[in-house]
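Appendix B, Record 12. Input sequence as logged:
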Amino acid sequence: MSYALLQKACTNCKPSSIKTYWANIRALSRVAGHDAVPAGAGWLNDKLLKAVAAMPLNRSKRFTTAGVKAAQMYKVKKPKWGKLMSETTEKYSKIRQSGKRTKREHENWPQGGYKALGSLAKTLHSELEHLESKKLWSNSDLYHYQKFLIVLFYSKHALRGDLADVRHKKPLGSNWVAGKGTKYKLHIGAHKTSRAHGAIQLDLGPEISRALDTFLPQLRRLTTHGYLLSTLRTGNRLQRRHAAAHPQHHPGAAREEHRRPAHQTSRTAHH
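Logged structural output:
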C-alpha cells in the first residue's frame, strides 16, 4: 500500500495530517507484525483491535484513528474500529476538558505538579509586580510578563498548546479570550475533537483574569496582530511552531529556565 492511496482517500485532509496518518498506519502495521503496510485490509482484524483497545488511552486513540484511516484507504468498512475510535476520543476529550493530565503529561510534569508551577508563578510575579504600576511597557516588559502569564495559566489548566492560537481582538475567530476585571473566559472552538465534542470554554478565575486585565492593554498598545502571544524581537504573533519550541510552554523547562542566569536564556528568548 502506498502513501498516494491515502492521499486519494483523505480528500479533505491537510497534507500535514496525511503525513501523520500515514506514519501512524505504518506504526499500527508493525504492531500487527508486518514490516510494511499490507496490500489488503485483512490485518485490521479483531485480534489487533483488542490489542489496541488494551493500550494506554493516548496510544489507543492514535491507533484506532490509524485503523479507521487505513480502512478508508482500502475502501472497506470497519465499524468496530470506528466505534472504538469514538469511544477513545470521547474519553480523551473528557480528560482534556476536566483539566486532568494524560499519563505522558503526568510523567513529564515537573516534580510537585501544579503546586510547583503555582510557586514558580508567584516567584515570577514577585519579580514583575512593578510592571503593574508602570504606565507604558516596553516589548521586553510585555514578553516577560507574558512568560509569567503562561506559567500561571498552566499552573491551573491542562490545556495543550492552544494559547498561541488565541485571539484577543476582533474578529475573534474560533479561539479567543475576553472579559474584564476578574471575569475572563477562554473559548477554544478549534481543537482536535471540536467536530465531535464542540468547543471548550473555561472560566479563568480571578488570578489569571487580573493578570490578563494588566497584560492585554499593553499588548494592544504594542502589537497589532490580535493574538495573545508575541515574540520578543519583532513583536509579531508567536506562531504555534515557535510556541512548541519555547521553554516556557513546557512547565518543567520553564522552571529550569528560571533557575539559569539571564545570559544563558537570552538565545532561547529572542525569536
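Residues 3-98 form one domain.
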